[in-house]
């Protein structure tokens, strides 16, 4: 048998073993083909194929969600005359949040982790394993919330859906932790790319937000996933559904002062948006009522805001497009402000109220029980801030102000400051407006806004929330790797214990029959009294046993006590401080649970690091 045939034969045997081991007798035909390909293709080839499959699937999910919400939203907003729209603004946002909460409680058993934080949590805390339910739960929940008028965006649910698709695909084909994380990110990338028809922005989103500190040499699956998601978006979505802007002015370096000021304004507004979001979240969590009642309270508040200011209804992209087309009057005429004289100051006050209340509307939508994200709200608010800034500039005499450009770069500025993602914001607006000649103003505004946001808080709100809960680290990749380990996996629950009143002969018998080098001395309730090691008792083992009268002669207090709730990084820090290699784990009542070894944590960490490096 020549080398080529031998390789084919070995590949066949491996596939046969997998077929039997993983129960592939029940697998679908395409799964069998992919399992066969995974054995025939090289690792990089199979990852590229996986990126294409995950990208197309996540892209289709994004197209489905955008189309579904667009059709619902179009019917509510455009098929009903204004006299009746007030009724819709009262009823539908309320129903959106309440129905979403009911669906979560009944169909999804109360599991409603949402937003980018959910993906970050799964990467750092759950080995990039995402529940298969999230492949469709986010679509259902966000379609109800946003379709019926919730003031949130679809991009975060699309990203979570794509991440779940990538993770579950990787689990199906038994890919490693590193590859699972890569395909999780590829799915989210394709979702964002399909939502905006912006593949580069999707890739930037993955590297800036999801894979912070993670170095991947295999980035090609991200690229092909983004391209697939974007192509499907362009082919299947109608033009009015796409996030596209065509009208803009040519860049003029004389307008740089406007962009510098707007960067500061959007940075401060982004901070305002984050603070309002955090306070509304704290307020809603503090309400002593059921989730359904919270949803009813939040829905009622949102409905009132939408009645007073219809642009707060839904994602708001159409309103921003109206701004770029100079169609402000029609927006105001669809609100209660139509009963006032429409002057420049009326427009300014109307826009100012929209900007200030958008942060409340979005936070109430998300934290009272709806499902959505901050992508669309930050873009809407940034565009409105840019338009408001342009209107004010014209009011005070600067007639040559580039209105459309300020709207576009304002969107990038607010998104950069809210999401801590300047590159994603820059490429998103550049791709969506075909405005690559706006790179300079986009960079100016986005970077200034980002720096202001980091000046107030060095980490993004999503990461800070997880860090405050002790679920993720925020600075070094090594720490996130350590944090993916679980403390309970390193506790030796079969550690040898010795009663505190044991006699010396009985002690020697236990030592002879045991196989441990370190022992815990406990009372009848397993409360820890001390520890000792073989080295402590060695002097009495060979001819000097008569000198040992009782166990207290060799027993000593441990250098430190470990709680089972402690994280691996915290435990390693205790090991480094004390210089110990084994420490006892006790509960809150000082009851002994087992010993934990520094070497076991380090070995697991090295194995995980090796898996990432391969």
Automatic annotation (TrEMBL):
Recorded superkingdom: Bacteria
Claim: Ion transport is one of the keywords in the record: yes
All copies of domain CBS, residue ranges: 491-547, 555-611
Membrane-spanning segments: 46-66, 86-108, 182-207, 219-237, 258-275, 295-313, 345-369, 375-393, 405-430, 436-456
Keyword Ion transport attached: yes
Topology versus the membrane: Multi-pass membrane protein
Main location: membrane
UniProt keyword terms in alphabetical order: CBS domain, Chloride, Chloride channel, Ion channel, Ion transport, Membrane, Transmembrane, Transmembrane helix, Transport
InterPro entries per record: CBS_dom (IPR000644), CBS_dom_sf (IPR046342), Cl-channel_core (IPR014743), ClC (IPR001807), ClC-type_chloride_channel (IPR050368)
Subcellular location: Membrane
Descriptive protein name: CIC family chloride channel protein
